[in-house]
Amino acid sequence: MTSVLPQINGPQDLHKLTDAELSQLAQEMRDELVRVLSIRPAHFASNLGVVELCIALHLTFDFSRDRLIWDTGHQIYPHKLITGRFKQFGTIRTKGGLMGYPNPHESEYDLFMTGHAGCAASTSLGLKLGDEMMGRPDRHSVAVVGDGAFPSGIVFEALNNSGHLKRKHLVILNDNQMSICPRVGALASCLDRARLTNFYQDSKKQFRNILGQLPLLGGMATNAFDHVRDAAKALLTGGMLFEELGFHYIGPIDGHDLPTLRHWLNYVKDHPGPVLLHVITVKGKGVPQASDDPVTYHTPPVFEQVGPDRTIVSLKKGGSKAYTDVVSSTIHELMTEDPRVSVITAAMCQGNKLEKVRADFPTRFFDVGICESHAVAFAAGIAKTGARPICNIYSTFMQRAFDQIFQEVSLQNLPVVFTLDRSGLTGPDGPTHHGCFDIAYLRLFPNMVVMAPGDELDVAPMLRFAVGHTGHPTSLRYPKAGLEKIERDVAPVVLGQSEILDWGADAIIFAFGSLLSNCVKAATKLREEGLDVGVVNARFAKPLDAATVQRALEEANVVVTVEEGTLEGGFGSAVLEAANAAGLDARNVVRLGIPDRFVEHAERGELLADLGLDVNGIANAVRQALEKRTGVFDRKAFAER
Description:
The protein contains 25 helices and 19 strands. It is an alpha/beta fold. The strands form four sheets. The protein has a seven-stranded mixed sheet with strand order 9-8-10-11-13-12-17, with helices on both faces. The chain has a five-stranded parallel sheet with strand order 1-2-3-5-4, sandwiched between helices. Helix 13 runs parallel beside helix 19 and helix 15 packs parallel to helix 17. The radius of gyration is 28 Å and the shape is globular.
């Protein structure tokens, strides 16, 4: 049998295929997803679930001119396969290769670099109105939004506005009963009821045909049926919720039946106003283990062995423990010890490794869905009562709650604890997910305490400090990385105090957070060259240990700050501010961190090396700073002192 997928150089080639070949194409696309997962971790179950939907969309619309936004974007792989990127697909999520999310730099078919949930309905509506203003009113605009993302507040803001504007706007609700973890909330129950009524759309046409043939009463009966139909829709499907927002609701329909999908997409294509098409899909479709366990197979480990019919025989065993493991186990310990402690997550129970917390403390574990703004305001209410909430949310997603951190937490000076997973560089997930900005955006707020553990031994003491610190809101950032441990007598965690590991006359390296180990190794390397280099585990960016910073500026030739966060407004900026406040010359301060640009995807180690944040990069920065500060750098002269 001749392969179909290699022949697809663009969506236009889909129109050359027979129904049988389109079915074969869907199978080959799933086979390609399995092949890639045999090489490296990638998003899997979500992509398996949208294969037919992707094909149907590209057969119905011309997205070289029409508009398509895949919400969140981690289900973009089938779209990439049929928009001219099949030959590059093996490079996905590797340095210099395809991005695992939409990327306008790769293709005209990717309009936005999406990585956060809920925004597609807004941007697709904006595209529609913008096209009208620019004289292109005939262009269609489509958003595909998952049911896990649908409860996001911005989705309903967009639906409300779209219903008011009454423009042609198609929102496809991709309902697979999942976010990354099982979806939660009242809307999920509403959608579950809709799943029970998939007879609705099929029966509508049949009843209309029958009633229309009745003499005299046909027209009256058809109108009566419309009223009955709408009542049934309200009672059984929950579709009236969307109808009241001004959308014409269609569904639910089978998202894996390609002819049915094409029929309904063509039906709604020319509807004059906003339409919500409710499509039922199976996350992990086509791979038995992925459909049975879509949580594990959302981003599974590499497939070590694949059997016939895409059966996964075995997964690669996991590596060493990560920072997330220590944070989750410490949260469990704190909840065991103190009934006031609760934890809130935003649809990331598995990612934050909170399954045991959820099982053991169901009344104090809250998964609010992909609703970060609500999560933070909700935590503020809990804290106001005297309880101790922990908001356990990825750094990149916490940005969505910026205003609530300001208004509901910092302004009220409430002791909410923010644990920011995936801070720093998240590797192959790329610029939408790198947690680069939390140091800067949290340092802005009065009352906020900003912390970062330098290694494994810091994590539990710092989290215990945060929960016990009733005077202010606190934040604790930690990377998506394996644990590292620096053997030492660990200093107790005291508000605003750093931990001096070594002192040096030539250079002092201040490490804020996850790169402490690299700084220690760089200092060791430089000492072997005869340099006197010290290392400080900063621990706090706010309040900063200004006394230790001032001492370093006065006693060392060079002060180097190292952080896995943006240099704009980050820890290094805090050091410069402290120097300015003390009236000290800060020309001997060198800041290392993430520059003022969005960092592409690659393995974390590759990115650190590229940015000069690995051991060699830090050591070179110290050497260059000393050369600039003290004149020509003579390693032998230093060694002979």
